[in-house]
Design goal:
Porin, mainly beta, single chain, 4% helix, 3 helices, globular, 51% strand
Length: 382
C-alpha cells in the first residue's frame, strides 16, 4: 500500500485556509416609524432599532483542500473542496464554498460543482483589507442586492450549486468566463436556472471586467416584496427573468490601488396577477482606494444605490421613493508577517426611509434603519 503522504505528493494536494475572527460593536438607529409613507415595494415599517452590542464573528473563515494531476498531452485534472469554518461558534464546518472537479487543456478550464458566479467573482474584487468576504465592509451589500428586501433569491452575490463553469485561455490579455447552474427544480410551469457571463482584460496594473447574469424563475422581486404584491405562490403560471450587469475598472500604481464598479439590476415578472409585482430597476456604484506603506495598509470605500423605477401588473401606481442607500467603510491593517495581520475597521450603512440594505451578520435592520459597525480582529492565512 502506498503511504498517504506519498499519495498526497503524487497528486499535489494542498491544505489551505484563512481565519479572520473579529470582535466588534453593532447598532442601528433611525428606523422608519410605523405608519410613515414608504415605497410601494416596502412592507410596513416597524420602527425598531437594535441596541449597541458586542459580537464576535469569523465571517467567511475557511478551510480547503485542492490539487491537480498531470494527465499528459497538455491535460490536467483539478479538484477543490472548501468549507466555511465557524470558529466563533460550536457549528464547526458549515456551508460549502467553492468545491469542484475540473479539467484543463488548450481549450481552457471546465469545472463542475458549486462555485461563485462569474458576476460575483469578476467584479468588486479589491477585497477590503483582504477580509471583505462575508464581512460587513463588503460592497456587495449595496451593489448586488435589491433595496426593498433581504431574501437571497434577489441577490446577485451568489455561489450557485449544480454549476458548470468555463474559463477560456487568455488571448492578448483577454479572457472569457461562462457559467450555467442547472434547472434541477424545473416543473411544467417554471424553469429556475442561472446563466452568468463575463469578459476580463488585464495588462500591467490595469484590470477591466464586464459581467452579465440572468436568473430565470428566481422571483427576486416577488420574494422580497410584501406578500400582497407577490406572484411567487399566488400566480403559479407567472415567470421571472432577473438580470444584473456590472462593469469594473481597477488600476494598481506603486503601492496604491483604486477601483470603481457600476451595476444595473433589473427584476421582471410576466403573467402575474393584477396589481402585483411586474418590474423594478436599481442602479448602484462604488469606489474604493487602498495604499500600503511598510507593514501598514489603509483602505477606504464608498458604495451607493438608487432606485430607478418600478411597475405593477395592470399599470397601478408604483413608487420607489426612499429606496436608496449608501455605505462608507474605513479601515487599516498591520502585517505581522506575510500570513498574519491585525486589522481595525468601521462602516456606516445609511438606508433611505423605505430601504432595507443590510450588512449585519447576526439579524437584520428594520426598514429605514442606519447601521453602524466597528471591529478589531486578526487574520491568518495558511
Amino acid at each position: 500500500m502506498v503511504p498517504l503522504v506519498a499519495q498526497a505528493d503524487s497528486s499535489n494536494v494542498v491544505i489551505y485556509g484563512k481565519l479572520y475572527p473579529q470582535i466588534g460593536q453593532a447598532k442601528t438607529t433611525g428606523a422608519t416609524r410605523p405608519g410613515a409613507p414608504v415605497s410601494t415595494l416596502t412592507g410596513a415599517p416597524g420602527g425598531n432599532n437594535i441596541a449597541s452590542h458586542t459580537e464576535i464573528n469569523a465571517s467567511n473563515s475557511r478551510l480547503g483542500f485542492r490539487g491537480s494531476e498531470d494527465l499528459g498531452n497538455g491535460y490536467k485534472a483539478h479538484f477543490q473542496i472548501e468549507q466555511r469554518v465557524s470558529i466563533d461558534s460550536n457549528t464547526g464546518l458549515s456551508s460549502a464554498r467553492n468545491s469542484f472537479v475540473g479539467l484543463s487543456g488548450d481549450f481552457g478550464l471546465v469545472k463542475l460543482g458549486i462555485h461563485d458566479s462569474v458576476y460575483k467573482s469578476l467584479g468588486d474584487g479589491m477585497n477590503f483589507l483582504g477580509i471583505s468576504s462575508g464581512n460587513f465592509v463588503s460592497n456587495s451589500n449595496i451593489l448586488s442586492k435589491p433595496a426593498f428586501g433581504i431574501s437571497k433569491p434577489g441577490s446577485f452575490h451568489l455561489r450557485p450549486p449544480n454549476t458548470i463553469l468555463y474559463e477560456s485561455p487568455k488571448f492578448a490579455g483577454f479572457q472569457v468566463h461562462a457559467q450555467y447552474a442547472t434547472d434541477e427544480g424545473k416543473t411544467d410551469e417554471r424553469d429556475p436556472h442561472l446563466q452568468s457571463y463575463g469578459v476580463i482584460f488585464g495588462r500591467g496594473g490595469l484590470y477591466v471586467a464586464v459581467a452579465h447574469e440572468i436568473h430565470t424563475d428566481y422571483f427576486g422581486g416577488s420574494r422580497n416584496a410584501p406578500a400582497a404584491l407577490s406572484n411567487f405562490t399566488a400566480a403559479p403560471d407567472a415567470n421571472s427573468k432577473d438580470t444584473g450587469t456590472r462593469a469594473t475598472l481597477r488600476y494598481k500604481f506603486g503601492n496604491s490601488r483604486i477601483e470603481g464598479n457600476y451595476a444595473m439590476l433589473k427584476y421582471k415578472e410576466t403573467d402575474g396577477l393584477p396589481n402585483r409585482f411586474k418590474e423594478y430597476k436599481q442602479n448602484a456604484w462604488s469606489l474604493g482606494f487602498d495604499h500600503r506603506f511598510g507593514n501598514w495598509l489603509a483602505a477606504i470605500s464608498y458604495a451607493r444605490a438608487s432606485a430607478d423605477s418600478c411597475s405593477l401588473v395592470g399599470g397601478a401606481a408604483c413608487s420607489t421613493s426612499g429606496l436608496d442607500g449608501d455605505m462608507w467603510s474605513l479601515g487599516g491593517s498591520y502585517s505581522l508577517s506575510k500570513r498574519t495581520s491585525l486589522f481595525a475597521m468601521a462602516t456606516r450603512l445609511t438606508n433611505g426611509r423605505s430601504a432595507r440594505f443590510n450588512n449585519m451578520e447576526n439579524g437584520s435592520a428594520d426598514t429605514g434603519a442606519d447601521i453602524t459597525q466597528a471591529a478589531l480582529g486578526i487574520s491568518h492565512s495558511f
